[in-house]
């Protein structure tokens, strides 16, 4: 793993810094350091406009291969971009699911026609995506999916019925990639397919889930004979599990640097308040701040180690620890934020949900060790897939 930067890399860093300073201004200045976890409901329309500005600067999909419309940036350059984006206060990305998850998946598994159809609108910041994986009975046990899709000969369409849950930003999305059961009677990993579904159509209902933070970036999505063209099937019927797992491999890839960008901003805010209110003088809090800083460095180095291999969606052994590591770290950051705030942590500016940034962070992190695979499930994955230990009795 090479974590050094060349003179050319540092010149590239200056280009990113200057671009961010020039463009994250005017109307977009209000977005600085906003839109992260617990704050994703902030100014969605303005953040979508920001995505288009990023696209004009060719920063969306900058790490994609040039054959797919990207700039083919090296891993070092992608690291630099995320670092400088964070330092400038770049907002949480509305397009990260399209750019970081479904885009690379379509590039890897889609046909040439699908790539030409779906990738350019992502690169242009015009199409926004959400993820149709989890269901009420299929969260950490994703293979228990019940949403079904059947091909209707009369209409020539896939017809999808079922329910997805915890669908981030579904109410702001143009498209959803849906893992559905297309083989009647199949169970587990078999008989699943990966479909691209347009959200603005009859047969799809999005119902927000109100959270402790008072925001509703998560949603339930109900499908009642919603349609997907046969051209919107990625791979073959029955390939869904393979493709879904590759997508999760991309989730543990370069997009982790964007997540760490938000973490760094949050930690910087904790440090700023600790200095301002005197909490930084408490030796125990100082030690916890130092532990948070060093923990974030470890996450960064492990990400660089993950990124040193082939970026094909395969889950490298070191990638299996990432979800467990970041969620545990982030929960502790939320606790630290409350302790740094002291008595102010329990006071609200007004009713009912005028939370400060750090109060929202604390409440949001309560779910970190559950969504995306609970810590218990992650430990099983590490044991079985990374260490080769005997599988848990089923």
TrEMBL record:
One family name in Pfam for this protein: Acyl-CoA_dh_M
Every Acyl-CoA dehydrogenase/oxidase C-terminal domain range: 238-386
Boundaries of every Acyl-CoA oxidase/dehydrogenase middle domain copy: 130-225
Keywords in alphabetical order: FAD, Flavoprotein, Oxidoreductase
Cofactor(s) the protein needs: FAD
UniProt KW Transcription keyword: no
Keyword Flavoprotein attached: yes
Domain Acyl-CoA dehydrogenase/oxidase N-terminal: 10-125
GO cellular component: plasma membrane
Family annotation (Gene3D superfamilies): Acyl-CoA dehydrogenase/oxidase, N-terminal domain, Butyryl-CoA Dehydrogenase, subunit A, domain 2, Butyryl-CoA Dehydrogenase, subunit A, domain 3
GO molecular function list: flavin adenine dinucleotide binding; oxidoreductase activity, acting on the CH-CH group of donors
Origin superkingdom: Bacteria
Family from the record: Belongs to the acyl-CoA dehydrogenase family.
The protein's name: Acyl-CoA dehydrogenase
């Amino acid at each position: 793993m090479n974590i050094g930067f060349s003179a050319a890399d540092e010149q590239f860093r200056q280009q990113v810094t200057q671009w961010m300073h020039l463009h994250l201004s005017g109307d977009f200045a209000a977005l600085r350091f906003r839109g992260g976890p617990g704050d994703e409901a902030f100014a969605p329309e303005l953040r979508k406009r920001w995505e288009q500005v990023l696209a004009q600067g060719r920063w969306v999909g900058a790490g994609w291969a040039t054959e797919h419309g990207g700039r083919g940036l090296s891993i070092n350059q992608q690291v630099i971009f995320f670092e400088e984006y964070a330092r400038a206060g770049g907002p949480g990305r509305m397009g990260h699911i399209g750019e970081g998850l479904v885009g690379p998946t379509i590039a890897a598994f889609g046909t040439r026609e699908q790539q030409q159809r779906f990738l350019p609108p992502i690169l242009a910041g015009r199409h926004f995506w959400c993820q149709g994986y989890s269901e009420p009975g299929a969260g950490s046990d994703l293979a228990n999916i019940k949403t079904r899709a059947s091909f209707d000969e009369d209409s020539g369409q896939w017809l999808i019925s079922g329910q997805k849950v915890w669908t981030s930003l579904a109410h702001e999305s143009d498209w959803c990639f849906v893992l559905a059961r297309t083989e009647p009677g199949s169970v587990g990993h078999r008989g699943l397919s990966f479909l691209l579904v347009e959200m603005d159509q009859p047969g799809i209902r999005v119902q927000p889930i109100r959270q402790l933070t008072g925001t509703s970036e998560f949603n339930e999505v109900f499908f009642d004979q919603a349609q997907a063209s046969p051209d919107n099937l990625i791979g073959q019927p029955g390939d869904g599990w393979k493709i879904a797992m590759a997508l999760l491999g991309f989730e543990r890839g370069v997009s982790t640097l964007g997540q760490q960008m938000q973490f760094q901003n949050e930690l910087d805010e904790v440090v700023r308040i600790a200095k301002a209110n005197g909490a930084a003088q408490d030796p125990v809090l100082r030690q916890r701040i130092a532990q948070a800083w060093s923990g974030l460095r470890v996450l960064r180095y492990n990400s660089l180690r993950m990124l040193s291999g082939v970026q094909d969606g395969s889950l490298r052994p070191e990638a299996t620890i990432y979800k467990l590591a970041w969620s545990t770290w982030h929960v502790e950051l939320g606790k630290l934020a409350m302790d740094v705030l002291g008595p102010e942590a329990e006071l609200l500016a007004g009713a009912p949900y005028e939370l400060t940034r750090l109060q929202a962070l604390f409440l949001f992190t309560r779910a970190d060790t559950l969504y995306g695979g609970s810590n218990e499930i992650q430990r099983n994955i590490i044991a079985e897939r990374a260490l080769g230990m005997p599988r848990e009795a089923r």
